[in-house]
Amino acid sequence: MATTIKTRNGFVIVITLIIAILMMLMPLPDYARFFRPEWVVMTLIYWAMALPHRVSIGVAWCTGFIMDVTMGGILGVMAFSYALAIYLIARFHLQLRQYPLWQQALTILSVVFLVEFIDVAVARATLRWESWMPVLTSTLLWPLMYAVLRKIRRTFQVT
């Protein structure tokens, strides 16, 4: 006998992803643009850890494809890197959920590093130290991002 999971309020996931995409598109001054955290990747990671039956590789690929189109990059690069990142999170989501936030932040560091590495290796011709700043800022902001998204998930009872 198969058990079914009752899902509710999926629109909240979509809204948080749209907000994350808008935060990635928001213009920043030249000195701050390298420090922009990977808002979309962190949002996808949170939902993949919290609700892996709702946000998985397909959602990550579609979101990455939207980011490819909106950011004007090479088509498929972000789609692939997001899907790979969420595959890794989905594969180990039960273990990751048990980690304290500082250990989760280290996981974020490695996953965002992977996303940035794919972007640098495929799309960018030059490698500069600024290319790695989103890895650091995403890692440092993970506890706050986790707390905000968890509060949203509980407030709207997203299942």
From TrEMBL:
| Pfam assignment, any one | MreD
| Keywords for the protein's UniProt record, in alphabetical order | Cell inner membrane, Cell membrane, Cell shape, Membrane, Transmembrane, Transmembrane helix
* Membrane topology recorded in Swiss-Prot or TrEMBL: Multi-pass membrane protein
Spell out the InterPro entries in the cross-references. Cell_shape_determining_MreD, MreD_proteobac
The signal peptide stretch is: none
User: For this UniProt entry, what is the primary localization, expressed as one broad class?
Assistant: membrane
In which compartments does the protein localize?
Cell inner membrane; Cell membrane
Q: Where does the chain cross the membrane?
A: 12-32, 44-67, 73-94, 106-125
Per the entry, what this protein does is:
Involved in formation of the rod shape of the cell. May also contribute to regulation of formation of penicillin-binding proteins.
Q: Family assignment?
A: Belongs to the MreD family.
Q: Indicate what this protein is called per its UniProt record.
A: Rod shape-determining protein MreD
State the organism named in the record. Answer: Methylophaga thalassica
**Lineage, highest ranks first:** Bacteria, Pseudomonadati, Pseudomonadota, Gammaproteobacteria, Thiotrichales
